[in-house]
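Model: Ready when you are.
Researcher: Fold this.
Model:
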Amino acid sequence: MPEPLQIHKALADETRLRLMRLLGRSPLNVNEILSILQMGQSRISRHLRILAEADLVTRRREGTWIYYESHTDSDWPLVKDTLSLLSDHERELPAYENDLQRLEEAIEGRRQQTISFFDSLTDHKVAGDRQSPDGQTYREITLSLLPDQIDRVLDLGTGSGLMLPSLLERAKKVVAVDASQTMLQLARQTAGKAAVDRCEFRLGDLEHLPVADGEVDAVIACMVLHHVPRPQAAIAEAWRALAPGGEITVVDLAQHHDESMRDAHADLWLGFRPIEMRRWLSQAGFEVEEGKPTTIETSKPTLPLITFRGTKACSKQNPAKRRRVTAKTARTAKTARRTTK
């Protein structure tokens, strides 16, 4: 553990304070940081090293890429308190508007990369193969975690809608959301006549869902969060969309190092660690009921999964940390809407 003086020294610099503000909002790789702060790589690397030695930021390897983020799950109270204080006073730090505008541009670049990929998949069979490998197995695992009867269910990142026929057998109403107009068109075809009265198709970003507060009773995130620029923001939005007592089911890849998934399937993230998925769910306000890595038994080797379920408590107030995340999400959503108009 670093000494308290080391933490204070690490923050006694304008650039490092700006870095902490950015990394508290989203993990960023070095190229994204260089673009946002308009500084040289050696200078940024030195500042990141100082912050990492003070335990204020962590680094995670995504294949050959390295992402830095605020160390919000630190076990040391002083680090947690310091990060909370920085978040509360981030507007008072230098270059607030410029940094956040450039951050949104970097995040939008990730988002457009994913949308362009899925907009190019106009054939049902190609779309099914390219959305994710072994998709049928993943969908079966997801369905096994759901109740037999659901009133209103939200399918995050519905893609070509391969989950919809099974959902329509269980739910009275299905809301299918995707950021790609092409995927929604394919999803309508997949759902067929059964979707006419009971399935709504909505174009929108998963980080600011086109869904009212408490509109649904269940949310499904099947093999979608690794395509989302900020998965934790999508989880916070799912919490908002759920009615009290509603459940979220997350099935996604465990962290891996197969970089071919970036080009073959437009994956932004090479899976997730169970500890960070549990943290995102808890920070959003969910009571996490289940979470364990899963290995799929198939005829060929496959990547391991993580499976999580969480419940939105009926009477529990939102954690303070979740309120801060939601407030930030609202501000970034507003900026994103201005950008896309």
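Researcher: Now this one.
Model:
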Amino acid sequence: MRNVLITGASRGIGAATAKVFAENGDNVFINYCHSEDCARKILDEFKNNGLSARIVKADVSNSEEVNRMFGYITEECKGIDVLVNNAGIAQTKLFTDITNDDWNRMISVNLSSAFYCCKAALPHMIRQHFGRIINISSMWGQTGGSCEVHYSAAKAGIIGLTKALAMEEGLSGITVNCIAPGVIKTDMTSELSEEDFTSLKNETPTGTLGTPVDVAKAVFFLADNSSSFITGQVLGVNGGFVM
């Protein structure tokens, strides 16, 4: 049984990923920041189905809270074997309207959080000579998105972090990979209209939109031993929207 931490796991992609790992026999730590009710609902569902999980509150954009979270995890088990850096926020704004606060929050939640969690998880992974780190970026981190400059920059940073860390940790038995989702129906895309979704669906070669489970299954694949020769890669889960 592996110990798995998924940040931002109270809903959407994070919640679906937690479920996939738990259903496959892993011990899952469900991180949340504000959505305690959602996290507890997921935990109750897991326990009712005999799945192993705990919830842990932390604002992962804050290094002190990350360190406290990992302190708790260390008390509960030896450490994290699989880290999924999923926590993130989105915002649509013209570049000229983005404030310094908007920029700093976007970078803190979407990029600094991954740095803090990787830094806290790695000592245990290095000691045991095994670890899987999967970072969630976005197709806009690959191509850039109009009216999402700060979001795109943060998600591009995730890709750079992934590639560099993979090179550094390969000899320690640790793989570091990245998922770049396309259009996935979650709370983060709830501001889009049905007309927007129809247009995006028509632009996608598969003619469909993605689901959180699509991403979750890709994350699980990259955490599996069968993918041990894959590291430093960006896997696009986007229906062919970006090739």
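Researcher: Key takeaway?
Model: The CA atoms of residues 54 and 108 lie 25 Å apart.
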